[in-house]
């Protein structure tokens, strides 16, 4: 059966943001060592398990690659990593209307990083399991697709275990940004479809609210070389030239700065202006009342 139709993960209901589901216990359970080091130097990852995710250390919020192919596992900077999707990942688009979102005719060969692991293909997921992140936030993060630069379209989708309808999370043919809400302590894998071989640059952003109400945001570019004939060096040297949307989570009420003891200058101005209007109105009422009383006295004297 095609890798496009036998992937397994739990799918949750989408809310205001599309929600990246938290998978059921199916081999994805993991705990990250808080002392894992950050490796230096370039790395080409073409087989094995890797995750994209945020890290929080000493007040510094970053996006890194958790490389589980290394022994012991390490974190890597995105600028040091190229994910290579070999031709072993080629699948053909199913002849099924449910997969029309792929944007290719049935039978078209495409490169697929599957949701369930293929030992011959790099297995790309994401997690919010860095111990520093879990200690610093309470709810989760917003994972944003900001843009894709490459020779073809990119689609990321989930397939439920009962072969239900695919749930599209990201689609490079749609407007950006494309946000996903990811709960804390989540580890998820999805299907990644690349329409054509070549170098892809995927701009991503992770935003969260810390326990103290502070907003943190990190942006990075994921480098992917699709196809055996695509030079890895081209992926390392490629530069994202497109424009990126301004994003970032909307601050919650707890994160909005409170005015100092002097109050807001605008509020003070409004109060002063309102007071002046009330004074003028009161004077006008008093003057008018005095005129009416004077006119009444004059009429009594005339009578």
Automatic annotation (TrEMBL):
The chain crosses the membrane at residues 266-287. Coiled coil: none annotated. Residues 1-20 form the signal peptide. InterPro entries: Surface-anchored_actinobac (IPR022435). The keyword Cell membrane does not apply. Keywords: Membrane, Signal, Transmembrane, Transmembrane helix. This is Choice-of-anchor M domain-containing protein.
């Amino acid at each position: 059966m095609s890798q496009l139709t036998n992937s397994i993960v739990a799918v949750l209901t989408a809310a205001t943001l599309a929600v990246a589901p938290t998978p059921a216990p199916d081999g994805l359970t993991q705990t990250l060592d808080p002392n894992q080091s950050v490796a230096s130097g370039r790395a080409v990852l073409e087989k094995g398990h890797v995750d994209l995710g945020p890290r929080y250390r000493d007040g510094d919020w970053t996006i890194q690659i958790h490389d589980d192919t290394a022994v012991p596992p390490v974190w890597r900077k995105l600028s040091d990593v190229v994910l290579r999707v070999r031709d072993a990942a080629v699948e053909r688009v199913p002849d099924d209307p449910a997969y029309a979102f792929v944007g290719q005719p049935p039978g078209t060969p495409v490169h697929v990083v599957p949701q369930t692991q293929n030992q011959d293909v790099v297995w790309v997921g994401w997690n919010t399991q860095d111990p520093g992140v879990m200690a610093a936030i309470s709810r989760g993060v917003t994972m944003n697709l900001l843009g894709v630069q490459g020779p073809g379209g990119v689609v990321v989708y989930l397939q439920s275990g009962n072969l239900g309808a695919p749930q599209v999370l990201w689609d490079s043919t749609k407007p950006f940004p494309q946000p996903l809400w990811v709960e804390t302590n989540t580890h998820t894998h999805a299907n990644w479809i690349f329409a054509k071989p070549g170098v892809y640059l995927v701009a991503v952003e992770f935003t969260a609210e810390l326990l103290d109400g502070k907003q943190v945001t990190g942006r990075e570019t994921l480098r992917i070389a699709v196809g055996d004939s695509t030079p890895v060096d081209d992926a390392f040297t490629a530069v994202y030239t497109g424009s990126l949307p301004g994003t970032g989570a909307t601050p919650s009420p707890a994160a909005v700065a409170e005015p100092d003891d002097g109050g807001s200058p605008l509020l003070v101005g409004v109060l002063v202006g309102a007071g002046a209007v009330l004074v003028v109105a009161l004077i006008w009422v008093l003057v008018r009342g005095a005129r009416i009383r004077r006119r009444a006295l004059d009429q009594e004297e005339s009578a």
